[in-house]
Automatic annotation (TrEMBL):
Keywords: Membrane, Transmembrane, Transmembrane helix. Residues 134-163 are annotated as: Disordered. It is found in: Membrane. It holds the Pfam family GtrA_DPMS_TM. It is a multi-pass membrane protein. Residues 3-125 form the GtrA/DPMS transmembrane domain. Belongs to the GtrA family. InterPro entries: GtrA_CellWall_Glycosyl, GtrA_DPMS_TM. This is GtrA/DPMS transmembrane domain-containing protein. The chain crosses the membrane at residues 34-55, 67-85.
């Protein structure tokens, strides 16, 4: 998770810097358009960071599928950020640079990051032959043990935690 957060921090810095640069360009005009462009730049940074660092040990049987899912989940994360920014800027009338940065780059990015972490871990960077998508990363079974055996080995801790 620490590597994911470090990659996310690099993406966040890229996103904020690009957003503020695009926001000041006369051809862009609207902060929502600036946010979309900034996220496009940050997506490249975060995909490479996550593929090369966060989930480097996981192979990928289908890189196109991985990239497509990464893009889809980033677009959902972008939608979350844009909705926060759009509500603040256009609906509430908070149009200052500070208000745009708080709504788009703090509230929106925070909510989008939580969603993306869950989605990447569950659907994107699952690795070749990683098995059950419901199992968290790093919870691989020793050879010859099924999910029920692992619960028994831990004294039913998983079952008790689920209650």
């Amino acid at each position: 998770m620490l590597t994911f957060l470090a990659v996310g921090a690099a993406g966040y810095v890229t996103d904020v810097a690009a957003f503020n640069w695009f926001r000041e360009q006369p051809v862009v005009g609207d902060p929502v358009v600036a946010k979309v462009a900034a996220v496009g730049v940050a997506m490249v940074v975060t995909y490479l960071g996550n593929r090369l660092l966060t989930w480097r040990e996981l192979g990928s049987e289908n890189r196109r599928r991985e990239v497509a899912l990464f893009a889809v989940f980033n677009l959902v994360g972008l939608l979350i950020s844009v909705l926060a920014l759009d509500v603040s800027h256009h609906l509430l009338g908070l149009t200052s640079r500070l208000a745009d940065n708080i709504s788009g780059n703090v509230v929106g990015v925070g909510l989008g990051t939580a969603f993306r972490f869950w989605a990447y871990r569950r659907f994107v960077f699952v690795g070749a032959g990683s098995g059950d998508l419901d199992e968290p990363l790093g919870s691989e079974q020793p050879a010859g043990q099924g999910p029920g055996q692992r619960e028994q080995d831990r004294g039913g801790a998983d079952a008790a935690a689920a209650l």
